[in-house]
Amino acid sequence: MRTVLRKLGLYLLTAWAALSLNFVIPRIMPGNPADNLINQFHGKLSPSAIQALRVLFGQKDTSLWSQYLSYWHSVFTGDFGISYAYYPSKVSTVLGQSMFWTLILITACTILGFVIGTGLGILAGWKRGTWLDSLVPATTFLSSIPYFWFAIIIVLIFAITLKWFPLSGGYAVTETIGFSGGFISSALYYAILPATTIVVASVGGWLISMRNMMVTTLSEDYVRLAEAKGLSKRRVMYNYAARNAMLPSLSGFAMSLGFVIGGSIVTEVVFNYPGIGTVLFKAAQAADYPLMSAIFLLITVLVLVANLLADIAYVFLDPRTRES
C-alpha cells in the first residue's frame, strides 16, 4: 500500500506540472483567435466592438494569476467556455458529443490490437522456430506501412473500388443517434474499415515485442526450474514465462491507451469519423485555443491515469516492485 500511495503522490505532482504547462503554452503562442478575426476587418471595427470580441472569446484584461485560478476552476468544473470552431457550442458539449465515438472505436480497437498481438507473440515465442515465426515478418511489414497511406489504400480498395463499405462518416444520415437497432447496426457497419486499419496496423508491433520478450524470458532459470518440476506446459507458458514477459508490453500499452485521442487524428480524418481526432484537427485549423486546451488536458489526464493503473498493476504482477 505504501508503494501505491507513493506513486499516487508522484502522479499528482506530475499532473499539476502538466496541467500548468497546458495553461502556459497557449498563452505564450503568438497571436490569438480574437486578433485573427479582428484583422479580417482591416481596421474597420470600433474599439468597443474589438473589446466586445475579446470578452466574447474569454480574453478579458485580467492578470495572469487570475487567469490561472480561473483555469483551475474550469478544470474542476469542466467549463472551458465557448468553442470558436463550433461557435456557439460550449467546449464541454463538443467534447461530450465526440468523445463517445473515440472511446467506442479507437479505444476498443487499441485494446483488441494489444490482446491479439500479445497473444500471438506469446505463441510465437513459446513455439519459436515453427511456422508461427512466419507471422513476424508479415505483421512487421503491415505495421511499417505509413498509417495514413494504409488507411487510404483500404478506402480505395473496399470503399471506392469494391463499394463494400461506406467511404466516410460514422453512421448513415438516415439514422438518428440513439440505442435503436438501426443506428447501432449502421454505426458498426461504418466502423469496420477504421477498426480494421487500427487493429492490423497495431498488431505487428505488439507481436514482435512480445515474441522477443518471451524468447528472452524462456532462458531464465526460474522458467527452466518450473519445467524441471514437471509442471504442465500451459502453466509454464502463462504463469511463468508470459506473466513476466508481458510487463514491458504493459507499460507500452498504458502509453498507447493514454495517447489514443491524439493517435486517432489520422484515422478519423481519413475516414471523416466524428471523434475527438477530427475535432482536434478542426480546432487546430481554426486556432480554437479553448477547445485545443481542453483536448490536451484530456490527453494529459488519460496518459497519467493509464500509467498509474499500469504501475499499480506492476505492483501486483511483479512482487519484486514491493521490496524495499
How would you describe what is shown here?
The protein is an all-alpha fold and 324 residues long. 74% of the residues lie in helices and 0% in strands. Helix 6 (135-144) crosses helix 8 (181-218). The model has no long low-confidence stretch (mean pLDDT 77).
Please state the CA-atom Rg, rounded to the nearest Å.
24 Å
Helix content: over 70%
Shape: globular
Q: Could you name the ranges where pLDDT drops below 50 across 5 or more consecutive residues?
A: none
Name the helix and strand elements from N-terminus to C-terminus, one letter apiece. HHHHHHHHHHHHHH
Number of strands: 0
User: Which class do the helix and strand fractions yield?
Assistant: mainly alpha
Distance between the termini: 12 Å
Q: Average pLDDT, to the nearest integer? A: 77
Largest sheet: none
Tally of helical runs:
14
Bin the strand percentage.
under 5%
